[in-house]
Amino acid sequence: MIAVPYLTALTTFFSYVLLFAFGQIRDIFRKIADWYSSNNLQGYAPICLGLEDFYIRRLYLRIQDCFGRPISSAPDAWFDVVERYSNDNNKTLIRTSKKSRCLNLGSYNYLGFAASDEYCTPRVIESMKKYSPSTCSSRVDAGTTLLHEELEKYVANFVGKPAAIVFGMGYVTNSAILPVLMGKGGLIISDSLNHNSIVNGARGSGATVRVFQHNTPSHLEEVLREQIAEGQPRTHRPWKKIIVIVEGIYSMEGELCKLPEIIAICKKYKAYTYLDEAHSIGAVGKTGRGVCELLGVDPVDVNIMMGTFTKSFGSCGGYIAGSKDLIQYLKYTCPAHLYATSISPPAAEQIISAIKVILGEDGTSRGAQKLARIRENSNFFRSELQKMGFEVLGDNDSPVMPIMLYNPAKIPAFSRECLKQNVAVVTVAFPATPLLLARARICLSASHTKEDLIRALEVISQVGDLVGIKYFPAEPKKQQEEGKMLKLE
Amino acid sequence: MNEASMNPQFEISSKMASAVMKIVNTTLDWVTLALDAPSARAVVFGVHIGGHLFVEVLLLVVILFLLSQKSYKPPKRPLTKKEIDELCDEWVPESLIPPITEEMQSEPPVLESAAGVHTIINGKEVVNFASANYLGLIGHEKILESCTSALEKYGVGSCGPRGFYGTIDVHLDCEARIAKFLGTPDSILYSYGLSTMFSAIPAFCKKGDVVVVDEGVHWGIQNGLYLSRSTIVYFKHNDMESLRNTLEKFTADNQRAKKLRRYIVVEAVYQNSGQISPLDEIIRLKEKYRFRVLLDESNSFGVLGSSGRGLTEYCGVPIDKIDIVTAAMGHALATEGGFCTGSARVIDHQRLSSSGYVFSASLPPYLASAAITAIDVLEENPGLIKKLKANTALLWKGLSDIPGLSIASNPESPIVFLKLEKSTGSMKNDLSLLEDIADRVLKEDSVFVVASKRSTLDKCRLPVGIRLFVSAAHSESDLQKAAESLKRVTALVLKS
């Protein structure tokens, strides 16, 4: 949990109030200007009324150049960012043909499979020539090829469950599975900081949704006890089933979930568990099998395991792993399986090859090296940042590290200054995070070398001094040197 | 003897009665004396206050006291820890999934090669009518070439959402190409066909808005409408009379509808029945009643119209009259993903409020470059569309005289939908009959057709049937083979 220092909270609040006030003044002027010009909507209600898009028009558009930066090469450790310019004060951004080579600290490329890989890419091209980029039909019609069956077997094996089902997009996996499993009369208890796809799936299912405090097993127990005792709202009939949804690594906090405690509580109260390993599969754990391996939880104890292939495997799509009966039932009822186009065959081949590399089945030890490197990189980077005095969130071993910025003016300052020095970072503000807690999020990769990390640390330290985000006292240099002397002795 | 025993009792009771009477009389005398005391004989405002006034005042005080007391409520007793423990122990949840039945165990056929017009299943070569490969672009040389170079340059995935370095220059090129092809100001790419509609609809339809939608739309649209929490009104499938009545009724009911947004959602070629919606009629109704139109052109993009620009070209309607056009690219364009196109305001709004765009990784770059190449091929070879039309007409002729099955789709639609002439009454039985036909056709004649399957979440109630997707790459002999085989097998199955 983040404890915001009072002065920072005050100044952040004040900045937002100022921005809001200026926005309102500009809106008033625009209304007056619109009074004179003709309204060409002719009886149709406008698409966005009044304050619905106030945040977008008056706050987001000012810093629009920090988001959505186009790139023109593979999202590897170093990539080319296309430069853009604007003639009308950031309202529209126009691409130029100039690019700058920058260090990539923003893409989800945990094991370094993003660019062309020596083992995976030839196989992917071969499978594309054999099966063509798309099957143009859903899995139950003509969309199941030998590759799809192989992929499901591999994924089930890798995760440690009897069977798995694969979809073409991670977002749709959550949104289409939850309505199938839960209906009216069911209860979904989800972590307060869960991803938008889980929230959408929960809403679309028709079940009642309750939220428990982020990563707090004691509050989860309280909520469970209260809900089972009370039953359904208004009728007080007992719930049909209860499902608890948590994520492996929370992408905006970088924290690992407290899985063993949560599983113990769910077992005690007979609730089903759903684990979303979008960021943790392939990135943590000794052999890359995710949070279950890292925290010592047996996969049998988790009822439904879900994950995506976008982050660690350098491909696209999502999967659900569970018991054979569960997967059979989902194949019969899930709309994403019955109606949507099946996953593209080259993408499936990329996943299979990536899993083979991770497990060492390609004959080399590249997989083990990658896993060791990402762990080293994350721990080194995090400890260095903390020594410099930045406020960094997240647990050890997690490759996601958010650096707190708080103030809305520091968001574009940090982003633009880093880009000037050829380091590309991602800054996140409202609505992906709470209003006062804006942050810059760093995602490391196994393809970052030690020199890359040292360069990144230099640049971030410089920019941090310039922008003023070193909220904690830095470890003084004398202490560091003394520490080194002791080690030498 | 009786007289003697009775008498003393009588005397005692009469003595007691007289004693009681004496006591009562004395008490009454004292009370009257007290009440007739000098204070009671005061004269206030010319009114005599008699002694009885004190009794009335006392009564009033008692009444007021009783009224001011709270009514009796049984005290609240929250459940004790022990009771909650007991309830938790007693509670038994349902199992996560219902028991697996026979029909849930069926497996779809597994392809061993690309899903083109001729594909290999179980080692045998079959004619494929189950892929929506309308222009025959699966396996096209140019597309494979452009994909190979994209794979070598960019790898497979894009490793990030559009807002965080997931925007690759091929995405922007693809969006510009689609907008140029259709003649609209701008377009936006989604990474999955199904998520296009169910992300675009909640971005525009909010709680309280009104959406009039056809009852035969596919699940993606139904889910999007459910998530948007607007008021949904269904009209009969492809029936313009029903649409007009619904619009009329709605506008008459709601007079203060100035700030209300109103939408009509239709598909160009319906996936569930193969019908084509009459766009010019819909545009007339929309302009009369001031509704916005959302059109899903997944199965008509690249198929209808003389140059493949979709339903707007086919019906002669300028595309800027349709507010929002969406399409999945997994049909005619032989790639994956989806796009949405319209005015600049519409597209810009989606870049920040459409959840499937903002919170999800972007389309893999090789699929975007495949889309650009597919549109290039389409523009250079308009003959593909003519061939598709000819194939559809040929197949229609061949299938129109099968006893027991009737064609439910439009003669110009590339989806030929065969339904049972006489339904058996339950959807399950219909489906098992049709699946039987499809299985036998595959096993005995090597023609691959599928029966349309419905999910339990789908609200559509249109009849199920056998779907054939016609492709421009089918040859005449393929089509004849399909028609003959279906005729033969249907006669066999329906007789038994």
Instruction: Characterize the largest beta sheet of chain B: strand count, sense, and whether it forms a barrel.
Output: 7 strands, mixed
What structural class do helix, strand and pairing data of chain A support?
Answer: alpha/beta
Report the helical percentage of chain B. 40-55%
Radius of gyration of chain A: 24 Å
Oligomer: heterodimer
Mean pLDDT of chain B: 86
Q: Largest sheet of chain A, order of strands side by side?
A: 3-9-8-7-6-4-5
Q: How far is the N terminus from the C terminus of chain B?
A: 112 Å
Most extensive chain-chain interface: A-B, 115 and 112 residues
Q: How far apart, in Å, are the first and last alpha carbons of chain A? A: 39 Å
Q: Percentage of helical residues of chain A?
A: 40-55%
Globally, the shape of chain A reads globular
Q: Count of DSSP E strands of chain A?
A: 13
SSE succession of chain A: HHEEHHEHEHEHEHEHEEHHHHEHEEEHH
Number of helices of chain A: 16
